[in-house]
């Protein structure tokens, strides 16, 4: 049976105003992840140099950290941070 529109709107509104509820909902659904998207991937790809050895032409890098602050071991919660590669940053500054 599909969800009613009213129920979906209620859950969506609760997710938007309560970050703790959102985190618990994701954990319950088996999506226990935390990532921070601070860049535009399309812009990164557009300005990337194809022969860059750091990003291999993607224009961005993904850095994975342990969420607990301890060392990164198998099974621990992680945080993914995306950042522009130096080649893409240089081209964006050059062309604005």
Low-confidence stretches: none
Q: Which overall shape is indicated by the principal axes computed on the Cα atoms?
A: flat
Mean pLDDT: 78
What's the arrangement of strands in the largest beta sheet? 1-3-2
Task: Record the SSE blueprint.
Elements: H1 5-17, H2 19-28, E1 34-36, H3 41-47, E2 60-66, E3 78-84, H4 86-95
Parallel strand pairs: 1-3
Antiparallel strand pairs: 2-3
Description of the structure:
- This protein is α+β, with helices and mostly antiparallel strands.
- It folds into 2 domains: 1-32, no CATH class; 33-96, no CATH class.
- Helix content is 42%, strand content 18%.
- It is built from 4 helices and 3 strands; from the N terminus they run H-H-E-H-E-E-H.
- It has helices at 5-17, 19-28, 41-47, 86-95, and strands spanning 34-36, 60-66, 78-84.
- Helix 1 packs across helix 2 (19-28) and helix 3 (41-47) packs across helix 4 (86-95).
Name some characteristics of this structure.
96 residues; alpha+beta; 3 strands; flat
Brief account:
Helix content is 42%, strand content 18%.
């Amino acid at each position: 049976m599909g969800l009613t529109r009213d129920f979906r709107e209620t859950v969506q509104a609760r997710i938007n105003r309560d970050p703790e509820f959102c985190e618990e909902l994701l954990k319950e659904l088996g999506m226990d992840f935390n990532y921070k998207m601070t860049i535009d991937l399309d812009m990164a790809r557009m300005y990337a140099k194809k022969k860059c050895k750091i990003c291999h032409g993607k224009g961005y890098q993904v850095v994975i950290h342990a969420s607990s602050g301890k060392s990164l071991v198998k099974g621990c919660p992680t945080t993914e941070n995306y950042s522009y590669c130096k080649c893409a940053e240089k081209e964006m500054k050059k062309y604005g």
